[in-house]
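Slide 14.
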Amino acid sequence: MKKIYCSLVILFFAFATNAQWVQVPNGMGVDQFVNCLAVKGSLVFAGTRSDGIFLTTNNGNNWNTVNNGLSVLNINMMSCDNIKIVAATVNGGLYISTNNGNVWNLSSNGMTDANIVSVLVKGSAIFAGTYDHGVFRSTNNGTTWVNCFSTARPFSLFAKDSYLFVGTIYNGVYRSSNNGVSWDTANTGLENVSVFDFISSENAIYAGTRKYSGSDTCGVFRSTDYGNSWFPANGGILTFDTVYALTNVGPNIFAGTKRGVFLSTNSGINWIAINQGFTILHHTTDLQIANSYIFDATINREGSLFGQSVWRRPLAEVIGIRTISTETPSAFSLTQNYPNPFNPTTKIRFAISGSSAAQTFLSVYDMLGREISTLVNEELKPGIYEAEWNASSYPSGVYFYRLSVFQAGFAARSYVETKKMVLIR
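Slide 15: predicted structure.
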């Protein structure tokens, strides 16, 4: 048993070093205030508070400014399609680039408010939310604009199917089914919250919100009927958190808060913190998925003179795990993968026992003992979980998967188990 304890401690520190968030500030500075991110193909853009827009073509290893044509460098929000990227500025109007940020053109003719707080490219239309004068719509690539929604502070814009949604500060959610010609409220279940972001996942819409007072519920809300009704999806974890950013990969939902980033794999029933590697639990302003990574745009907590730049983490470290049961198992366990043999995906189920959360690692190794994939690197509460491994990029052969668990506290315990599986292509 002592040998197992020793091995687990070594594995814990080795995995924690390699599987975590990494700050990627090269070219923009480690103290940069980053307000927003946008993804256009393999390109990632970062909008900052005072230095304009940065672009990376190599997943954040290097950033370069792309500010030609911008007269205001405080960027609130960005949105894009396959052709153009649209940048909303603070008191400087709206800019559009059709050459990946090489040149920006001011495109605010007809707007009566230059403080743009949200923007959305939806088909052939562009929608821009302004701080004091509602939402403007352009159907000619920003040449002219008309006001289509008058309620102030539309801080988030979102489209799903034929519906357009506006999330406001203090005034809830509004919805249009005709591109902003007419609107109705969609606030049932969302009373007394402000809405900062929306996403769509598996036929449901999720809203990231902020409460008005200490007694109000906020966090994440879920609607399965296009906003006719909303229900909390906080799992008891995010109930009193402001959620500034949401993104998802299929059923895996990420929420950005002032306490870092959280993940749900079961429609918001349960959430886990995925903050390994962060040097401070900063204020997340935006989350985006690109090139098999999740990117986290950050500022620091209120009152700080410094930001926290952009952070990056491989998606393979944090998705592919779902909660099967929250009941506490009688013992730790690792089951045989199924199917086995498999091609190209297989599922691995395991149980976390005990009375407290445990640092959990589930990794895949080749025949030479080299770690080739990290499926789980999280602090998990007692329960039964299932992870999936996609081996589409690996050759046929024998592989091994190992579960390593370290449970700290008064009754510290550890568990390590390895099993074999066969990939047949």
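Speaker note: The radius of gyration is 23 Å.
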